Amino acid sequence: MQEDAATTYFLPPERLGQDAILRIAQEIANSPAAISLALVPLAVTILNDTRQIVYANMRFVRMVGVQDTGEVIGKRLGEALGCAHAVELPGGCGTTRFCQYCGAAKAIVKGLEGEHATQECSIDRLTPSHLEALNLQVWTAPMAQGPHHLVLTSALDIAHEKALRNFERLFFHDILNAVSGIKGIHDLITLELPDNQPQDLDLLRRAINDIQDIVETQRDFLAVEAKEYHYARTSLETLEILHYLAAYCQSFNHEPKHVLSVDPDSPSLAFASDSRIIQRIMVNMIKNALEASAPGELVTLGCAPGENGGVVFWVHNPAVMPEETRMRLFQRGYTTKGVGRGFGTYGMRLFAQECLGGDVDFTSAPGAGTRFFLRLPG
Predict the structure, then answer these.
(1) pLDDT tens across 221-238, in order?
(2) Which member of 3, 174, 210, 286 has the greatest number of CB atoms within 10 A?
(3) Is 234-376 the same fold as 18-157?
(4) 108-114: long-range contacts (C-beta < 8 A, 24 or more apart)?
(5) Is this structure's pTM higher than 0.90?
(6) Which tens digit of pLDDT belongs to each residue from 12-49?
(7) Is 234-376 assigned to CATH 3.40.50.720?
(8) Residue boundaries of the structural domains of the chain
C-alpha cells in the first residue's frame, strides 16, 4: 500500500511551518532559559507540540554531528539524530510502526501530556559511511514559553554503561561455570579417596565455596544497584536460618579465635522473604563482628518479632565503633579495612531496602557493644 503524508502508526504527522518554528526558536533564544540550558552538561533540546526542535544546546549539536543549531531546528528528535526509521514514512519521526516501541517517543508523549518521564532509547543511526547504534537515557518534562506548550528533553549517552553491564553478565556467567567445573572435579576426586581423606581437600572445598560466594555477592550487588535483581520469596523459619548461619560462619572463625553462638532466647518465627539475600546480609554482619572482636570474645546471633508481623535478625559483638565509623558507616565506599573495600555495610543496607523492603541499622555504645539489626517487614 502506498503511504501518503497523513499515514501514521503512532503519533500525528502534522508539523508546524518553518517560519512559525523559527519565531518560537527566536523567543527561546532571547529568554533567560537559553543561557542556563547552554551551560547544562547534557544534550538538551526543546520540542514544540508537534515534536519539532525549537531549541538545541551545543552538546546536542555535537551529539548529532553538525556545526550549527540551525541545522536541527524544525526537525524531530529522531530525524536530527539520524534514526534509520525516521525516513520510512513521509510523516517522519514518530509515525512508523517502530516508533510505538521507541523510548524517546514514549517519553516525549508523557511530556506533551504534562508529565515527567525517563526512558532508555536505542537508535540505529544512519551516517554517510556506516550504521551506528546509539544507546540513550532520555528525560522529558513539560514547559511553557508564552502561549506555547513545549517539552524539555535531555539525553545522555549510556552506550558505555550498557556495554559494561553486558560484559559483567558474561563475566559472572563464565566464572561461575568455571567454579562449578572445579567443584565437580573436587567431588570426583573425593569419591575415589578413603574416608580418612586429606584435610587439604576439605580446605580446597571451602576455598571453592568462598570464591563462589564472593562472585555471586558481587553479581547480586551490581544487579541490585542497577535495579535488575529478581526477588525470590519463599517460606522461612528464623531458628533454621540462625543455626545454618552459625555453622556456615565457623569457617571464617579460624582456630577458632572467637565464640560464635545463637541466642537461646531467640524465638522460632515463620515468615516469607528472599533467603539468599538474607544470608548475604547476615554473613556480612557476622564477618564484621568476628573481625571487630578480640580473641575469645563472644559473637551472638539472634532474632525477635518485628513491627506489624515482621522479623528482626541481629548480630552482637562486645566491641564499640569509633564515632567517625558510626557516622559514616553506610556511605558507599567508606571503609576501615583498606583501599578496595567499603561496599560491605553499604551493600547490606542496599540489599535490605531494595530487595527485601526492610532496613539495616545498628547500635554501638560502651558497656553494650555493637549490635546490627536486619529488620524485615511482615
Answers:
(1) 777 777 777 778 899 999
(2) 286
(3) no
(4) 108/47, 108/51, 108/77, 108/140, 108/151, 108/153, 109/11, 110/140, 111/47, 111/140, 111/141, 111/142, 111/151, 111/152, 111/153, 112/49, 112/51, 112/142, 112/149, 112/151, 113/142, 114/142
(5) no
(6) 999 999 999 999 999 999 998 898 999 998 999 999 99
(7) no
(8) 18-157, 161-225, 234-376
